[in-house]
Amino acid sequence: MDDRISRLRERVLAGMDLSKEMTDEEIEDLIAKEMAQTAQKHPLSLKERMYLGQQVFNSLRRLDVIQELIDDPAVTEIMVNGPENIFYEKDGAMHHWEGRFASEERLQDVLQQIVARHNRVINRASPIVDTRLADGSRVNIVLNPISLGGSAVTIRKFPDEPFTMDRLVETGSITKEAADALRILVQSKYSIFISGGTGSGKTTFLNALSQYIPSEERIITIEDSAELQIQNVPNLVRLETRNSNMEGVAAITIRDLIRTALRMRPDRIIVGECRGAEAVDMLQAMNTGHDGSLSTGHANSCGDLLSRLEMMVLMGMELPLPVIRRQIASGIDIIIHLGRLRDRSRKLIAVDEIAGIAEGEIVLKELFRFEETGVCVGKVCGEVKMVGSLCHQEKLAAAGMLEAAKKGGLCGLS
Question: What pTM does this model have?
Answer without folding.
Answer: 0.82
